[in-house]
Amino acid sequence: MTAFGRREQITNMEKRPFIATYIQASRPFGVLYIGMTANLYARAQQHREGVVDGFSRKHGCSILVWYQQFWTVPDAIRREKALKRWNRPWKMQLIEQRNPDWRDLHPFLVGQAPDPRLPVAGDQEGSVEAFLKWLRDGGEDGEA
């Protein structure tokens, strides 16, 4: 891919909303940061580059290890708040269900690598495929 093509890809991703709750880690089994964003593409890149002061930068939480996409910001905020109340073993189990090797999901998110996550039987809601289908179907409000 040319440098221009790469720039075009990033620009397109920054324009598309990707509302999500996510978990960043400093390393496998390391410090965890839970957040939510209306643009996971941009936010995950900010964490990788350490450009925003705060907890994740201080503790080196630059590896995107888990995320869940939502259609609305209030739903993502509710999930973020719920996850922050969970104890650490539950959070670790959540990550390891789909990402047992704690691989960085950012390259997959931006289209540079295949999805390293394990499939979950019957878990189609919130997947990239479900989102793309929703867009193809016209992006109507309601069921995805």
Describe this structure in words.
- The protein is α+β, with helices and mostly antiparallel strands and 144 residues long.
- The protein contains seven helices and three strands, in the order H-E-E-H-H-E-H-H-H-H.
- The chain has a three-stranded antiparallel beta sheet, sandwiched between helices.
- Strand 1 (20-25) and strand 2 form a beta hairpin.
- The radius of gyration is 15 Å and the shape is globular.
- The N and C termini lie far apart (32 Å).
- 24% of the residues are buried.
- Mean pLDDT is 81; it is low at 1-12.
Summarize the helices and strands and which ones pair or pack.
Elements: H1 3-15, E1 20-25, E2 32-37, H2 40-49, H3 55-58, E3 63-69, H4 73-85, H5 88-98, H6 106-109, H7 128-136
Antiparallel strand pairs: 1-2, 1-3
Concise summary:
Helix content is 44%, strand content 13%.
What labels would you give this structure?
disordered N terminus; 144 residues; alpha+beta; three-stranded antiparallel beta sheet; globular
Question: Strand order of the main beta sheet, please?
Answer: 2-1-3
- Gross morphology is globular
Unreliable residue runs: 1-12
Q: Count every beta strand, where a strand is a DSSP E run of 2 or more residues.
A: 3
What count of helical segments does DSSP give?
7
Order of helices and strands: HEEHHEHHHH
* Major sheet characteristics: 3 strands, antiparallel
The percentage helix is: 40-55%
**Average residue pLDDT:** 81
Radius of gyration: 15 Å
Secondary-structure class: alpha+beta
Give me the oligomer status.
single chain
| Beta-strand share of residues | 5-15%
First-last Cα distance: 32 Å
